[in-house]
């Protein structure tokens, strides 16, 4: 008997990772402000060696959350 196979989900697109300067430019914030967001985990990131990278979806989620908070206030 053959084991069931998972359905093909199509080609996966790699997640784009942003650098801190790219996030700084996107949010128009300074370096310290971006690192504060990372430190307080308001903005998700990964560490690769000594480099911090922010997935594009994390930046989008952060902006969406802030917009929702502003709308609720």
From TrEMBL:
| Keywords in alphabetical order | DNA-binding
According to the entry, every stretch annotated as the Helix-turn-helix domain falls at: 17-66
One Gene Ontology molecular-function label: DNA binding
Protein's UniProt name: DNA-binding protein
- The source organism is Streptomyces dengpaensis
């Amino acid at each position: 008997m053959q084991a069931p196979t998972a359905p093909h989900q199509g080609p996966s697109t790699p997640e784009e990772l942003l650098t801190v300067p790219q996030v700084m430019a996107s949010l128009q914030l300074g370096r310290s402000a971006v690192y504060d967001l990372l430190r307080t985990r308001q903005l998700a990131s990964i560490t690769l060696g000594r480099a911090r990278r922010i997935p594009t979806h994390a930046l989008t989620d952060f902006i969406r959350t802030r917009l929702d908070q502003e709308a609720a206030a």
